[in-house]
Write a structure and sequence with these properties.
Largest interface: A-B, 48 and 53 residues
Shape of chain B: globular
Helix content of chain A: 25-40%
Order of helices and strands of chain A: HEEEHEEHEHHHEHEHEEHHHEEH
Strand order of the largest sheet of chain B: 6-7-8-3-9-10-12-11
Oligomer: heterodimer
Radius of gyration of chain A: 21 Å
Distance between the termini of chain B: 62 Å
Order of helices and strands of chain B: EEEHEEHEHHHHEHEHEEHHEEH
Number of strands of chain B: 12
Number of helices of chain A: 12
Largest sheet of chain B: 8 strands, mixed
Distance between the termini of chain A: 7 Å
Largest sheet of chain A: 8 strands, mixed
Chain lengths: 346, 349
């Protein structure tokens, strides 16, 4: 009933776009050796999510919450321990390497550190040409023309084609990384913290570029970041991760405006806001760091830092449950604000 | 020196110029800026990479160790011109009266020494105290900056701390001699937003507890807004705008400030299709064409009037900016700057 009456993107204007990417119970464990014997880092611990064609899913969380590991699993840069990743109807987790390689043109990745992810000895044009050569996408001339076109799309003057990465600024390098990712005409881009290493002014340019590209080339994004304001800006749906698990998933605006999970609320509260108030507003400042993903507590992983913890949070692990507005949250006591909005909207 | 002490600022920087001699000519990294920091005041300096904000503060402390660097002007700190002091005299002030927190907490600590060693060393460099007493002070300080279990953690090495905790150790070091001025150079840029919030809160608490003045250098208008009493906006080594935080956040005057604010996604829950980003890249400090408003090459309101460089004009009490646009039209022009972005996106669609 919510969906029928709420004037929000929730109710979908027509039939929903087809699923492009689906993760089913993805688990990634890293075995490590410590002085106390072998242990397991539970980097990603049972994540299921769906991304529809043309939408942007934002994954947000602190360093160490497993969002980058999940991103790498989604494009199978690393193999999953358990679970499946289905891209466009095919399970890419069980594919042979050879088969996977031919499918790679469908999904590409943009990395956080534009300094480390470019070959310092390769010029801009060659950097963008390389993936097309690898996948045999046309003659030398065709590849060259397309590479020049891509450099232009991401905002470079043709004279930049012969420059080396060190001759570019951070923002320019990130745009070069985007051009390289686009070279094989992917349908899905996984962007792992693409703007967090950049000045805010350059961040805005790159975010605008990503928005333009999505509109012009019908791209689907999975956008990974630690800044909820940036994710809210670019994403249609947001998944909040904590210690390897999704704790809240839903449409961007409700998650941002009325967070249901206390962790989402805390992330929101950490964003530095431009205001002209005399009194600085009350903020929920999370105490402590993310706990270790090696020995996870039995109950809710957020319980040790949560301002609303009760006995059940420490003993029983909450599972993702559906709220009225189509959002899922893993919390024994979802925040009242979110719950009320749901009823009011109905 | 004037005799009035109450109104006298703690730090008074007058016409500071920092130039680097390079093979291709002189580069003016800081091009004649003047500002003051009052006692107990938090001054935010904001600007993009290369705007001269870090260099200006490093030169204040005589920390630029480059024979090709020329620093001119006056930096009056507690009645003394720091630029006239020799290294030995500076060392008496550095770390004791003026302390600095750097951006990257990993490189600011020596990996082979413990957190406690770092802090005790600093205390013992300035005060005649026993190792034991310095160690005890180190534990107190680590506790004050919110490191749990400080008695044990004092013996931990930098790699055993997370990024946020490391930054707390660096802050504890900086506070160890009760400095009257703390310079924090992008103290939270390398950190997660949640940890950033913790560190900013810590700085605020410590500031009210110890009464130090703080100069906070950042590129994030949001951080400045959360922390500062007064704000300087720098571009190309010059001041673009300066004023009390409230006035500057409510009525930003300079188009560059508009751009910095527009670059941050709105936090009030609204969603815009495109951000009002600043086009182009920050000006290269070696650009020889300097007798103009340096921002004019990226400004949508640039005209012939932007040359020569407009001077700083005070509009409202304490709120100054260097721009030729008519003052009374600024709010309308700011709105125009925001809407141009929207139309641009419509046209290219």
């Amino acid at each position: 009933m919510t969906a029928a009456t709420t004037p929000s993107p929730l109710d979908g204007t027509a039939t929903p776009a087809p699923l492009l990417l689906e993760a089913r119970g993805v688990v990634k464990h890293f075995p490590i050796r410590t002085s106390n014997g072998k242990k397991i880092v539970q980097a990603v611990d049972g994540v299921s999510l769906q991304v529809r064609a043309g939408e942007t899913l934002g994954l947000v969380g602190e360093s160490g919450c497993g969002k980058s590991t999940l991103g790498r699993c989604l494009v199978r840069l690393i193999d999953v321990t358990e679970g499946q990743v289905i891209f466009d109807g095919t399970d890419i987790t069980s594919m042979s390497r050879r088969e996977l390689r031919s499918r790679r043109t469908g999904f590409q990745m943009i990395f956080q550190d534009p300094y480390a992810s470019l070959n310092p000895r390769r010029r801009a044009l060659a950097t963008v040409e390389e993936p097309m050569r690898t996948h045999g996408m046309g003659t030398d001339q065709e590849i060259r023309d397309r590479a020049m076109h891509l450099l232009e799309i991401v905002g470079f003057d043709p004279s930049y084609a012969d420059r080396y990465p060190h001759e570019f600024s951070g923002g320019q390098r990130q745009r070069l990384g985007i051009a390289r990712a686009l070279a094989v005409t992917p349908r899905l881009l996984i962007a792992d913290e693409p703007v967090s290493a950049l000045d805010v002014s350059i961040q805005a340019q790159v975010l605008n570029l990503l928005a333009d590209l999505q509109r012009d080339q019908a791209l689907t994004y999975v956008f990974i970041a630690h800044d909820l304001a940036v994710v809210h800006h670019i994403a249609d749906r947001i998944g909040v991760m904590y210690l390897g698990e999704l704790v809240e998933v839903g449409d961007s605006s409700p998650v941002y405006n009325h967070p249901a999970h206390p962790y989402t609320e805390a992330l929101l509260s950490s964003i530095p806001v431009i205001d002209d108030e005399v009194e600085k507003r009350d903020r929920i400042v999370l105490q402590g760091d993310l706990p270790s993903p090696i020995d996870k507590p039995p109950g809710c992983a957020f319980a040790p830092r949560c301002p609303y913890t009760q006995a059940i949070c420490v003993s029983d692990k909450p599972v993702l449950q559906m709220l009225g507005d189509g959002r899922e949250v893993a919390c024994h006591f979802p925040l009242a604000a979110a719950a009320t909005t749901t009823t009011v909207a109905t | 020196m004037s005799e009035s002490t109450a109104a006298e600022p703690l730090l008074d920087v007058r016409d500071l110029r920092v130039a680097f001699r390079t093979r291709s000519g002189t580069v003016d990294a800081v091009d004649g800026i003047s500002f003051t920091v009052g006692r107990g005041e938090v001054l935010g300096i904001v600007g993009e990479s290369g705007s001269g904000k870090s260099v200006s503060m490093l030169s204040v402390l005589g920390l630029i160790d480059n024979p090709n660097c020329v620093v001119e002007g006056e930096v009056i700190f507690q009645g003394e011109d720091l630029l006239k002091l020799d290294d030995k005299e500076l060392r008496r002030i550095r770390g004791k009266e003026i302390a600095m927190v750097f951006q990257d907490p990993m490189t600011a600590l020596t990996p082979v020494y413990t957190a406690g060693w770092h802090i005790s060393e600093q205390i013992r460099a300035h005060e005649k105290v026993s190792k034991k007493a310095a160690h005890a002070r180190a534990i107190q300080l680590l506790d004050a900056v919110g490191i749990p279990n400080a008695t044990d953690r004092v013996n931990s090495y930098p790699h055993e701390f997370s990024g946020g905790m490391r930054q707390r150790v660096v802050i504890a070091m900086a506070l160890s001699c009760n400095p009257s001025l703390l310079i924090a150079d992008e103290p939270t840029t390398a950190l997660d937003v949640t940890i950033q919030a913790q560190i900013l809160e810590l700085l605020r608490d410590l500031q009210s507890e110890f009464g130090s003045s703080i100069v906070l250098i950042t590129h994030d208008m949001g951080v400045v807004s959360q922390m500062s009493d007064r704000v300087l906006v720098m571009y190309g080594g010059r001041l673009a705008e300066a004023g009390p935080r409230r006035a500057l956040m409510r009525d930003p005057l300079h188009p560059y400030t508009w751009g910095l604010m527009g670059s941050i996604p709105p936090t009030d829950g609204t969603r815009v299709e495109r951000l009002a980003a600043i086009p182009g890249a920050p000006i290269n400090p070696s650009d020889p064409d300097r007798d103009r408003c340096l921002f004019s090459s990226r400004c949508s309101f640039a005209s012939d009037a932007c040359r020569p460089q407009p001077g700083l004009v005070e509009h409202v009490h304490g709120h100054v900016d260097a721009c030729v646009l008519p003052y009374d039209q600024r709010p309308a022009l700011r709105l125009e700057a925001l809407t141009t972005v929207t139309t641009e996106s419509g046209a290219s669609a």
